[in-house]
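User: Hey, quick favor. My workstation is busy. Could you predict this chain's structure for me?
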Amino acid sequence: MKQKKGRWLILWAWGVVCVADPVQADDLMEIYRLALRHDAQYAASLAQRRVGDEQPIQGRAGLLPQISFDAQTSWSETEYKVVTGTVEQRRQNRSYGVQLVQPLFRWQNWIQYKQGQQQKLLADLQAESAGQALILRVTEAYFNVLNMVDVIDALEQLQAADELQLASARKNFDLGNASIVDVHEAQMSHDRTIAQLVKAKSALVLAKQALTQLTGRHPGSLKRLGNRVMLSPPEPTDVETWVTAAERGNLEVQAQELSLQITDNDVRSRKAEHLPTIDMVVSQSMQQSPNASTERSESAAIGIRLNIPLFSGGRTTSSTREALALREQAKYELEDTRRSTALAAREAWAGVMDGIAQLKALETAQSSADAAVRSNQKGYQLGMRTSADVLEVQSQLSDIVQQLAKVRYDILLAKLQLKATVGSLTPQDLNEINMLFE
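Assistant: No problem, here it is.
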């Protein structure tokens, strides 16, 4: 089932690529289509998959007949001592031979054939895992760009508010209604906001560069998440259900399970080197001038060849111990992968659930901060609040707006990560998120 889903994922993705417009990359799916074409990590995984496709063929070769052709030519010179003197004879010898060897019993070759099939399945799983990783990397890079754009927007709004407050503080100081302290505080807040804005713009350049690395071209104007998007909790809402599904369906867990099976077969393959082998050998040969009295000779043979290994200097025993150690290593790596996957599922689930709770709290905090800014500005005009009070609530409002924007992206990314932990992440999930942008 996983193999079919993996093939569907790749075919769906490439089908999307074929109909994509490569000129404009303005939304999440467009960025993903470009990444499918240009991302080096994903391209490497596809190449590795093609390597895996060859493994069953190579493994099967050990069960099929091996045919070889041999040709040889030589020159000989013979000198004879006879009564009448010395006789020299020169002769050219040619020989040709064809041999066919059909393995009848080679247990090691049979195990290697099974390993070839397993290695192909492993390459398929790794390619599917790379496809899911690409979805996550594209989404994270896309969200990083949007998040920095939101941060810059919030800081520019804060800068405008600080400029108004600075102008008001200077005016009140000139009228004698405020001290120079108010002016200095407003100037300090304004300068600090400008410094934050410079840092945010630099971070935006780097975020766009990360997106360029994935797609091979500089991103255009990206679509942004709507402010009224409703984000729902994952279904089912029980974390243990997700953890159980992750421990079974996670692609890394499946790959590690398959690796353990491959090491099991490797142990059997090493042990099989102690066993005898039986081959059927068919040969046909021809010799020209094999000796002085024969002009040509031909021979044909068919038989059974038995080979019993007796002693190989300890290499076979040592390689068997090595295979046993590698199997034990794979066993512990599988257990570690299961534990890591369970933890990742819990973290992703908490990222969605806690993010939704945080989103509601921040939306309430934003409303309160808006009201606080208005009331403090009015209080400052009436002399009931200081400039520092106004600057503080304006800064708090800007922080809340920035957090609010980021938590939306974090929730959506955590949803994709949660599906990836159970091995069910597909481009369709990405398309559903893309529909939330405007």
